[in-house]
Every structure is written in C-alpha cells, then in structure tokens.
Amino acid sequence: MSSWLTNAWYVAAWDAEVDASPLARTICGVPMLFYRRLDRRVVAMRDACPHRLLPLSLGIREGDSIRCKYHGLKIGPDGVAEEMPLAADKLNRSICVETFITHERHRFIWVWIGEAALADPALIPDLWPCSHPDWVFDGGHYDVACDYRLMIDNLMDLTHETHVHAGSIGQPEIMAAPLDCRVEGNAVFLSRWMPGITPPPFWREALRHDGPVDRWQICHFLLPAAVMIDVGVAPVGAGATLDRHDQGVRGMVVDFMTPQTETSHHYFWGMARNFDIHDAGFTARFKRQQGGVFAEDKAILEAQQASILANPDLKLRAYSIDQGGVRARQIIARAIAASSAAAGATA
Ligand code: FES
Ligand SMILES: [Fe+2]
C-alpha cells in the first residue's frame, strides 16, 4: 500500500507551468504529461506511448493531439490513437493511453489520481488566500528528495525556524512560545503567539517598522497534503490577537506536497499576503526571499531522508514540538485505511 491517499486531488503544476509543449511530471508514482489544448483546457495522460513506451512528452504537438517522436503514432487529447505509424495499419479504440481528470483552481493545476467517478472538484482543498481578491499570491516549485510527509512534519513544526532559518525568519522566541494543537475533523491547527518581541529581519522589512511586535504562527494541515500557515507581525498595542490579526502585515504560506515516489515529492510553495498587494516588485522580491528560505528546508529534509535510509534499524521519535505533524500523519493514515476499506467493501 502506498503512503498517500489515492482518491484525492493533488497539485500537478502551477498554472503558468502548463502550456502548449508537454510537461513531464511523475505524480504519485505515475509518469504523466500535461499540456494545454487550444481552448486552454489541460490534458493529462500517462507519459508512455502505447506502442513501445517512449515518453509521449518527447512527442510533437499537432493541433490538440500529440505525435510520438519514435514511430509517429498520433494520440488525441482523449488518449485514443488517431493515426497509426503506417497508414495501412488498422486503428481501433483499444490503442490508447490512460488519461486523468484535471481542474484548475487557486493558480494550480490539480489532477485526480484515483477512481474517475469520485473526482469531485468540491474536494479540492480550500486554499482560499490564493484566490481572494484582497490578497496576492505567488510562489514556486522544488523537487525534493524526501517522503512528502517529512515536509508536512517540517511545516507543522516551526521550531525549526530558529536553527534552519536563523538568518531570515528564525528567532529564539519561537522556542519559548507555548504551542496549542487542536484537531477539527480532518484538519490540524497548531498555533503559537509571541507577544512583544523584536521582529526578525524578514518581518521588520515587511512591516517597515522598528519597534517590538506581536508575532503569530498558525499552521493548518488539510488533506491530502496541504499546509497553510497564517503568519505575520503587528506593532505592540495595535490590538492583534491570535484570532484577529489584520493590524500589521499578514501572510499565508501556502504549501502543497505532491508525492512523486515514496522518497521524493513535488513541493509547491508560495505566499499569499494582504498588504502591498499591487506592488509587483515586492511580490517578486518576496518570492525570491521565500525561495531562499525553502531551499534551506529542502537541504535539511533531503539530508534527513538520506539518514533515514542509511539507518533502517532506527526509528523517528516524536517530542512535543512534533505534535502537529504526528496528528497530520494520523489523519492521512486513517484516510488511507478508510479508503481501502471502502474499496474492499465494493470489490
Ligand atoms: S514508441 Fe511511440 S510510435 Fe513507437
Ligand atoms: Fe522551514
């Protein structure tokens, strides 16, 4: 059994990544290719020619179809062959590749990897700050050589900022602040409130203010593999609380972890914010800074994964700082078990 939920929507790409030329990407163990038709709808299909399995992503677009680069089999956007390598050879509908259902929302291309009949767009995680008119959102993508759940652990435990991101967003006060963890259905919330502290450089520059601030972090896990983190600072005395905090600068770190293999994943990271939303230059600088911060996580997590593989006799331990990740993993495991029980009942 895989370590990920199968009947679920996963982010396959940023909206800007999928264009007329095929994009190859392995999603949940399945090599896929993605491209846009002329009407801009996204096609997703298995990245293997039905003839000799050459990746179709190496092929040539012809209208809304794709022609294999090896012997020229032409496949339509519905996955069915339209022309054989030799015109004399008979076409039939069984010469086809598997296609997948896609949906575009929140700046992402989502792909459904389970039973097609269950692919309801209402099940796409509600990453609302990515589509809200009063917020601006941008970000990037990293291939990370580790189990996607290690990234969820990392995002649900921000004590690591103190050491991993010492030069940008980390500060010792993060270690001192008490944690509150609560589970609501399939969601986990881990909150931390840091009153009257000196802001780290990243937030001081965003706030354009030098005095002490109240700082908050609220990590929110959503199935199958998303974490949104409500973060920001407000000047002391501005009235910000853990429940209401639009008095200073507020951002929502939006992360989606799409499994690639059991030990690698696609990390779609970004930041939505509700301040300076028309400043495109700031958005670009912010994204560059954030990309640098997440590259620090990538280096740590890849080293952690290598160490896990090199020490198969050792176990991961959980301390109190790990409670958010532990709860998220329990929810994932429960959902996988429920889904396979349901599949067993209908088999
Ligand atoms: S491998 Fe694609 S046509 Fe032969
Ligand atoms: Fe981090």
Overview of the molecule:
The protein is an alpha+beta fold. The protein folds into two domains: 106 residues, Rieske [2Fe-2S] iron-sulphur domain (Rieske Iron-sulfur Protein); 214 residues, Alpha-Beta Complex (Naphthalene 1,2-dioxygenase Alpha Subunit, Chain A, domain 1), CATH 3.90.380. Helix content is 22%, strand content 33%. It is built from six helices and 17 strands. The strands form three sheets. Strands 11-17-16-15-14-13-12 form a seven-stranded antiparallel β-sheet. Strands 1-10-9-4-3-2 form a six-stranded antiparallel β-sheet, with no helix packed on it. A hairpin with a 2-residue loop joins β5 and β6. It is globular. The protein starts with 8 loop residues before the first strand and ends with a helix. The model has no long low-confidence stretch (mean pLDDT 94). The structure holds FE2/S2 (inorganic) cluster and fe (ii) ion (FE2).
Indicate how many domains the architecture comprises: 2
- Return the average pLDDT rounded to an integer: 94
Small ligands present? FE2/S2 (inorganic) cluster, fe (ii) ion
Low-pLDDT runs: none
- The level 1 CATH classification of the largest domain is Alpha Beta
How far from one another are the termini?
16 Å
**Global structural class:** alpha+beta
